[in-house]
Amino acid sequence: MQTEIKTxxxxxxxxxxxxxxxxxxxxxxxxxxGLGANALDSNAVRKIFEAKGRPSDNPxxxxxxxxxxxxxxxxxxxxxxxxxxxxxxxxxxxxILKKSDDVPDEVTACLDTVGVRFPKHKVAREFIKxxxxxxxxxxxxxxxxxxxxxxxxxxxxxxxKVPLIxxxxxxxxxxxxxxxxxxADVPTILRPGAITQEMLAQVLGKVKTFDGKIVVAKAPGMxxxxxxxxxxxxxxxxxxxxxxEYRRQYKNKVGAVVIGKSNYLDGIEDVLRINFIDLGDSxxxxxxxxxxxxxxxxxxxxxxxxxxxGERGLGASIMNRINKAxxxxxx
Length: 331
Known about the structure:
Blueprint: E1 4-6, H1 8-20, E2 25-27, E3 34-38, H2 42-52, E4 61-63, H3 70-73, E5 74-75, H4 79-88, E6 93-99, H5 105-108, E7 113-117, H6 122-131, E8 135-137, H7 151-158, E9 164-166, E10 178-181, E11 188-191, H8 197-204, E12 208-209, E13 232-236, H9 239-251, E14 256-260, E15 276-278, H10 283-300, E16 303-307, H11 313-326
Helix pairs in contact: 1-6, 10-11
């Protein structure tokens, strides 16, 4: 299969035709690029799992082009859920709701709930609207690999597995959407993202983050290893421990790189001798750049040493991805 990258103007008609014929299309969102198929066509949805090598018990998210589409995918939508939808959609959030009978089991991993997302990205919205159906989509990468934030990342990983990638530039947010379960007794964040617990609490009053044992995953990103580079990756407890690990790797003849915010290595001696990828000044910039940095690093180095971004706000969302990517290894 030949894989092409086209702009929306060049490729929209082809993309819509592919979706209507039960095929997959890669499209950009503000979070990461998604691998999409008609969410109401079980055979088409299976092709997502085939292309990614994704376990069938890992549910997908249904993407919509208008708020009114939610009522086709979900039932018994609470007033609390509608408040979250009104406040944060379109945007980088997925809301878990009771699914309607129209949603195939392949999308939900046979659960009675479905994740619904209304992306903000202009290309995503125009593509989904033109298709006229909700689009089921996980990130457009091989299962367990780093999520793509550019069309070129997708091509590197999925060349020959998908027919078309719609170009939409670099993703503005840079990590997957926040997922909040609005069917739980207390609204529960299943995957943190750019919409933080603090932001949701302002709308809901009470909200918590899931911290229990995962038996059945109600949302993507919960149960399996994700976001992992092809090289070793560790999290450093401090800048000093990052440098110590860097020097240890160097002695073992392993090329290493440190990734962190602009000021991470300030005050470290011989800092110019350390390979470093700058993620920007703020947590928002670091979140936008983290996957791109990991893509770059895995091509050049044998070990990635990453800053610890903490347990609050956007830092906690970044660490959710880094901890999974590193397998929890800390130095």
